[in-house]
Design a protein that fits this description.
By secondary structure, this protein is of the alpha+beta class. The protein contains 1 helix and 6 strands; from the N terminus they run ββαββββ. A hairpin with a 6-residue loop joins β3 and β4.
Length: 70
């Protein structure tokens, strides 16, 4: 392990990028390509999480239960 003058751990750029990608994958904060449609008003939006969650329609406010994506 290498440290700089301030005592911070120095990591290779590839390791940092891999960590950021994995952190983003776990959080699921990116477009999934799956669209959700509100059964009440018909509003459609793209889902941004892979986990099971509750989403709210931006038009009418209806709560919609979403199952986890594989």
């Amino acid at each position: 392990m290498a440290f700089d003058a301030s005592g911070n751990l120095i990591l290779p750029q590839g390791t940092i990028l891999e960590f950021e990608r994995e952190k983003e994958r776990i959080a699921g904060n990116r477009p999934t390509g799956v669209h959700v449609t509100c059964p009440r008003c018909g509003y459609t939006w793209e889902r941004w999480t892979r986990r099971s969650s509750r989403s709210y329609c931006r038009r009418c406010g209806m709560a919609i239960r979403l199952e986890a994506l594989p």
